[in-house]
Structures are given as structure tokens and as C-alpha cells.
Amino acid sequence: MAAVQILSPIAGIVRPVADVPDVVFAEQIIGPGIAIEPDRLQTQDVVAPADGVVGALHAHAFALELDDERSVLVHLGIDTVSLAGLGFTLHVRAGDQVRAGQVLMTWSPVDVAAAGLATICPVVALQAPADALTVEVDAGTHVEPGAHLLTWH
């Protein structure tokens, strides 16, 4: 399989996935990845981290199916399912073909924080072996949407 670049879906500070306050992400149970602590904006666009088809889609998370049996999960905040979509706006539907950098949703990190929830956003290569990913950005680095985060070999 050809290597795939996984881009940052949001603007923020790169963090190790181990920093995510949820064991499923922190211990890489569903796959390896990285996390981003979003810029504290009232509204922030979330872009596709690669070309693909929108698979599972929720107000607070989506899985992007890539062309070669690989999927990337982007989860906006932790326990944000409890918000029942409040503060999240979808701009795509499941099954839509999207291009890297295309806006998929908009959310409010400020509102998520005000609800007392963690705003950190895991970006996970679903079911990938840990050695299949190369992290391309140092922890603590500020990234903009579309910045090269990971290479999936």
C-alpha cells in the first residue's frame, strides 16, 4: 500500500495521544494516532485529514474511509457525545466523497470547555499497527488545518 499523509483537521497544539483523558484513545486500543488541543475559538472549522468517503458520522466525530481499506477517526473533544450535537454543525453526510482540506463540520471548543468537557481531539488510524504511523510534528507545535501530521505507511 502507498503511504498516506494524514493532515491536521483543526488548528491547535499537537499532543501525544497518551495525553487524551480517555483510555480507549490514550492506550491506542482502537489504533495509534496523535491529538490536538484546539485553539480556543468560539467557532472552528474541521477539515478532512485526507481524501476519502465519510463513513461513520456523528455531530462530534467522524471516520473517513480512505481508498485502500484504511480509516481515520477524528473525535472532537472527550465525552462530547453527551452534548447531543449542541455546538456542532455538520456540513457533509455519511457517504459523501471529500477532499483533503474540505470543511466537514464546525464546532465550538469554547462551548465544549464551558460544559466542563475536555476539548482535546484525537486523530486515530483505526485498527492500524502502531509501527504503521510516523508522527511528522513534534508535540507542543502549533498546527493549522491541513498541516501534515502523520504518515501512514
Care to describe what's here?
With 153 residues, this protein is mainly beta. The chain has one domain (4-152): Glucose Permease (Domain IIA) (Distorted Sandwich), CATH 2.70.70.10. It has two helices and 14 strands. It has helices at 23-26, 109-114, and strands at residues 4-7, 12-16, 33-38, 44-47, 52-58, 61-65, 71-75, 88-90, 97-98, 103-107, 121-125, 133-135, 142-143, 148-152. Strands 9-5-6-7-11-3-2-13 form an eight-stranded antiparallel beta sheet, with no helix packed on it. Strand 5 and strand 6 form a beta hairpin. The model has no long low-confidence stretch (mean pLDDT 97).
In CATH, the topology is named Glucose Permease (Domain IIA)
If you average the pLDDT, what whole number results?
Answer: 97
Tally the helices: 2
> Which term fits the overall shape?
globular
Total discrete domains: 1
* Strand arrangement across the biggest beta sheet: 9-5-6-7-11-3-2-13
Percent helix, as a range, is under 10%
CATH architecture: Distorted Sandwich
Main β-sheet description: 8 strands, antiparallel
Gyration radius, in Å: 14 Å
Q: In CATH's first tier, which class applies?
A: Mainly Beta
Order of helices and strands: EEHEEEEEEEEHEEEE
What is the strand content? 35-45%
| Low-pLDDT ranges | none
Distance between the termini: 7 Å
CATH homologous superfamily caption = Glucose Permease (Domain IIA)
Strand count:
14
Helix/strand class: mainly beta
